[in-house]
Amino acid sequence: MKRVRALLPADRSALESILVGHAAAPQIARDAFEHGALGLFERGSLRALIVHAPVEFAQRARELRWLVAPGLDELKALLDALRDEVPEASLLRFVGGGVHRGGLAPHVLDAAGLERRGRIPSFFGPEDDLLVYSAALDAHPSFHFDPTNPAHLHDAAFGYRDFVAERDFLLACARTHGGRMVRRVASWACASGRHLQSFAEIGVDGVGIEDDLEQLELAARLYTDARASAEWFATAIDAPVGAEPVDLSFIMLSAVHRLATEGALIDHLQSAAALLGDGGVHVIEATHPSDLHPDHAKIVAWTEMRPPYAVHSRFRLDIERRARDGTVPALLDVRCREQATGAIAGTLQQQERWLVPDAAQWENLVARAGGFSIAAMLGDFQLEVTSNQPGAWRILMVLRKI
To answer: How far apart are CA 33 and CA 129, in angstroms?
Structure first.
């Protein structure tokens, strides 16, 4: 009879017997019983092991540090046990090579429900690749991914974002620079609503604002958390929203740059201020002006896995075609291919003109809009990093309603 239980100090000898076959195992594995582990046992003999730990700066994520399992059934049992043991976790991450996976073939991890997110060939040694996996553990139901649906492709393209960590950053901005307890938030250009879903997990109600009807429909369909409620508004991000006041609002993923004139940016700032209660905070994630410098401008490419598809995305700012009004073409190209054949299953292309202000221009726009003071201008998702520090790669502007 098979059973799953936590690893105990008395299991040291069984653990050491597993490690005999993995002489190159890292110290973290040899100290597994101190780090929180689950073992699957048959007739009292340890046959499989999963070592897990919290992910730093991500309160609801868990890291798999070590996997040993004789097959798919045992691995699935371990993952199920982990879900039961850490019910508050919403994301599982695993980074490892052949030793770390205990000899498990990649297709076994795929079949167990871990989604392959990245690969660095021969990172650990010849033909021993570094593999990056993740799996959602929360209660949100998965949806049937349609590679021909633009909203689904957009959602997949930006699935690499750590929405829980970003939620915690936004809450930290409100605690540090605001004067309100956060019970209700607004997401401008909310797309498929992933940020609002992360707030729902901690019981915070949401307001989703998006002018793309397909994305708004997907956001409403994915939002099923009973711990909070949400309202949805098919509204442009520079227009007023007829909703009850919120305590915190934000516009992420550089979506603010879709407003290609200073007048439209001022309209957005005034609409955001009108939606916030006194002392509320509005956070803008903007593109850093250094991205417009010829030495820094580049094409950014990444891949997200949605088995049986691979979603390849490319983004660039075409600074050579910068117009007199300061706007530059922003090009997003998403191609979804079948993993088995390489055939294209769906594409998404977005071409917009972006206005990318620098810090001084932002200060001028905020002053002209009224209603806000600039509490901080950050260069990363950390409260200690300012936008003018070396290495700053974003402008994260924290505005407090006056």
So the answer is: 26
If we measure between CA atoms, which residue out of 17, 87, 3, 96 comes closest to residue 51? Answer: 96
Q: Please report the pLDDT score of residue 33 as a whole number.
A: 60
Closest to 343 in 3D by CA, of 307, 303, 309, 305: 309
Closest alpha carbon to 32 in 14, 56, 45: 14
User: Quick one: DSSP state of residue 114?
Assistant: P
Residue 336 is encoded by which pair of tokens? 């979804």
**At which of 136, 166, 183 does a domain end?**
136
Domain that holds residue 365: 150-289+356-401
pLDDT at position 60 is 74
214 Cβ contact list (under 8 Å, min separation 6): 149, 150, 151
Q: Which of 62-71, 221-230, 376-385 has the lowest mean pLDDT?
A: 62-71
CA distance 261 to 259: 6
299-342 confidence digits (pLDDT tens) = 899 999 888 899 999 999 999 999 999 999 999 999 999 998 99
| Residues 134, 144: Cα–Cα separation, whole Å | 18
Q: Which two tokens stand for residue 22?
A: 């993995």
Count structural domains, the chain: 2
Cα distance between residue 119 and residue 133, in whole Å: 9
